[in-house]
Design goal:
Length: 431
């Protein structure tokens, strides 16, 4: 598409962000060098305080919130969140950029130090570079550039660094949403710089239901298994029934949601783990027992067209069928957590603002996508009841959680421009 002439403000923003490329890279490197690995939640407080000090110098009011009592919170690993707010010269809407500061474990196969934040070939490498410290850095540069270019704006800009997104977000956005910090009238529009690619707008995510299924048996001596009842064999029957009955049913379900990648447009279920028999928490040879319990954790992802009650009933129907037809079969099932699917409408203000900015910066229309997995939008919608929320960020989705993770510097620069242009439209209504 042919580019249209930029406004004076947009030219000013573009120039300011181009002048801050070195600062953008340095900020990304600084953030990566905090090894905020979750679990257990390392270096949350130093990273949050670094952000707070940076934003305080830029004129933001800074507050820290510890997610006390949330999963994993302890004096050793406090769930420390930071929210920084810059008030304009008068009342108006609030635009909030929310990024999580936690990263997943390093894993194997790295060819460089994952926390050295090496710059090479126009990329910044490191655990969290893509997911999502590059996006966090881009949002800070965008906000600072907008404030410098248009200091007399009305409304407010917020930036948050929150924790535990990689483990559900309960010590971070969920905790803050319960306190009203992601609800009107405090906040009107939320952009989450998750790594969904710089030309995509992520409208939401599929639903999720995690559950633990336990098959029950009778313990006996392993040399005489006929005197007991093997719970692991019963779990094998569950797996076989899932293959024959449940997985074909899931594969037949297709969504109209623009989920990426293509395979996620169908309902899916992952067998997360299976635990049965003797404990493995000690060294030595296991005792000769028939296992009386076997537990399986399932991770079921479902579509906007499905409802949670039906999702659960499909699994239970398979288990009840085994109970009716398999000798001595018995089971228990326990909900672990669930999240409803969510999808922001395309005509929502935040979608329109970012879409217009993408067209102006990248000279193309955006792709609209749905994430296969959940992210913190779920808490903003469910707890905060704020639905003008999307994910938009510079990272390449396929690089998240992988070895030699990186973020492209040019992508961060262009995304920062998109974010800055979107701030202006959301605060003023001007395109």
């Amino acid at each position: 598409m042919m580019p249209k002439p930029m406004s004076d403000l947009h030219e000013n923003l573009t120039r300011r962000i181009d002048d801050q490329i070195t600062a953008l890279v340095a900020l990304t490197q600084d953030l990566i060098r905090f090894p905020t690995i979750n679990p257990p939640g390392e270096d949350y407080t130093p990273c949050a305080e670094y952000l707070g000090q940076r934003l305080k110098r830029a004129g933001f009011q800074v507050n820290y919130f510890r997610g006390e009592g949330t999963p994993g919170d302890s004096d050793q690993y406090p769930r420390t969140n930071v929210i920084a707010r810059y008030e304009g010269r008068g009342p108006g809407p609030t635009v909030h950029f929310n990024s999580h500061i936690d990263v997943v474990e390093v894993g194997h196969d790295w060819t460089m130090d994952p926390f050295a934040a090496i710059v090479r070939d126009g990329r910044v490498y490191g655990r969290g570079a893509c997911d999502m410290k590059g996006g966090l850095a881009a949002s800070i540069i965008a906000a600072e550039a907008y404030i410098a270019a248009n200091p007399d704006f009305y409304g407010a800009i917020e930036i948050s660094g929150t924790v535990d997104e990689e483990s559900g977000g309960y010590g971070g956005v969920a905790y803050l949403a319960e306190k009203g910090l992601f609800s009107k009238p405090r906040v009107d529009h939320v952009i989450i710089p998750e790594p969904l690619n710089k030309d995509r707008i992520c409208l939401g995510h599929r639903g999720v239901w995690w559950a633990e299924i336990e098959t029950l048996g009778v313990q006996a001596h392993g040399s005489m298994p006929f005197l007991g009842d093997c719970a692991v064999r019963h779990m094998g029957a569950v797996l076989s029934a899932f293959e024959d009955q449940l997985y074909p049913l899931l594969a037949s379900k297709q969504t109209q949601m623009p989920v990426v990648p293509e395979g996620a447009k169908k309902s899916t279920m992952n067998i997360n783990s299976i635990h049965g028999g003797n404990e493995e928490s000690h060294e030595g040879f296991p005792s000769a027992n028939v296992p009386e319990s076997c537990r399986m954790v399932i991770d079921r992802r479902y579509l906007l067209e499905e409802d949670l009650a039906t999702v659960k009933s499909e699994v239970i129907a398979v288990l009840d069928g085994l109970k009716d037809n398999r000798q001595n079969f018995d089971y228990a099932i326990r909900d672990m957590w669930d999240v409803l699917p969510t999808m922001t409408e395309r005509d929502a203000p935040v979608v329109q603002a970012v879409a217009g900015a993408i067209e102006e910066v990248l000279h193309k229309k955006p792709d609209y996508v749905i994430s296969p997995g959940t992210y913190d939008q779920k808490h903003i919608a469910r707890i905060g009841h704020l639905h003008d929320c999307i994910a938009y960020g510079p990272g390449i989705l396929d690089l998240a959680h992988r070895a030699d993770e990186y973020v492209v510097i040019d992508d961060m620069v262009e995304s920062a421009k998109v974010m800055a242009f979107a701030i202006h439209q959301l605060l003023t209504g001007a395109k």
